[in-house]
Amino acid sequence: MIRMRNLFLVGISLLMGVAVCELGLRLAGVSYPIFSKIDGDLGVVLRPDAEGWWKTEGEAYVRINGDGLRDRDHSRSKPADVLRIAVLGDSFAEAVQVKTEDTFWAVLEHDLRGCPALGGREPEVINFGVSGYGTAQELIMLRRRVWAYSPDVVLLAVTPTNDIRNNFKALEKDERRPYFVRDGGKLLEDTSFRERLGFRLRFSSFGQALTSVRDTSRLFQLVNEALRRISRPIHPIHTLPPSEGRKGGGIAEAAQPGDAPAWMQGEVGLDMATYTAPPDEAWQEAWLVTEALVRQMHAEVEARGKLFMVLTVSSGPQVGPEQAERRSLEQRLGVSDLFYAENRLRQLGEQRFPVVTLAPVFQAYAEERKVFLHGFANSGLGQGHWNAAGHRLAGQVVAERLCRALVDSRAHQASGATLASGAAYQAP
Fold first, then answer.
1. 109 three-class SS
2. Domain range holding 151?
3. pTM score, two decimals?
């Protein structure tokens, strides 16, 4: 009897301690909101109506709308006087680091209003970006959700420094997402992640209940953030082995701590291997899968008579303001510039679809004005995601290029000629 009473008292004390900690964290404004949830098709999606302050990198109050998009609310049916643009991408598109009005897709919507090809219609941009997505998930997102909104334009934002790896299971080693594999000239979806024990546990009723606690408890969020930081790699991912054919011994030696500013040492979790030609068969296959995914997305968009456009997202080391630091990195990598991925994707789009390569534009802008377009005061300048200035420049560049593509499409349609890009889309 005494033992039971003692256990009861211990339990009550623990609950009270948890309650006090929870209250204290809330009063102190400590929160690490989690905006995503598990999904059987995409691995993870954004959680409808989730909201909270994001302060880990940058600072913004983030709200996920009722349809699970980091955006304002949008109707499924498209008004007749609207040109609708769907944005697909990863964390650069989700953009929790900045206010909604400061995102590149919000700037795109604003700046596109002056485009003569709109003919008085209002541009409307809908953001389908989700952190951590690769091109495979973005293709599935296109099929599963985007077409329900009847977009006139599909804009795919590719982040080369992690998307290439994200798209190939052997490099990514992530059992929580779907992949596509090449088989006889076709892309076959690999959904084996659904059979993994970890996914099945998280997808179970018990796992979903724990997730609900995680989503609401500040204490749980704090513990989750601590575990995330512990498991996070300290240094950037360098998968390219040393090579005698490269100056300085290759990428494995390119960014050792202490020999360059933090923003030039590469970015945590990203691959500097994408600054060079594929170093081995695994990376070559990752590139071939990525290109096949982009071509497939283009084909599906074109089949509906819509415009497809690719945007390549920059990385911090590519666009730092100090030319000498970039040149040093290039020498150690044995390359003439840091734009291998951008050039390869631009070539993929030639005679097919427009490709907006931001990195060269960003580099020139940053060097001229001596500004950082990546990074924040609370996380380090020159690395990580775009800050408000980076988003603003990206939105302006994309708006100008998209307007040009729309003008060209209308001109070619009026003349009855075929587009130089080879696209068969109709002028919206």
1. helix
2. 74-197+236-415
3. 0.85
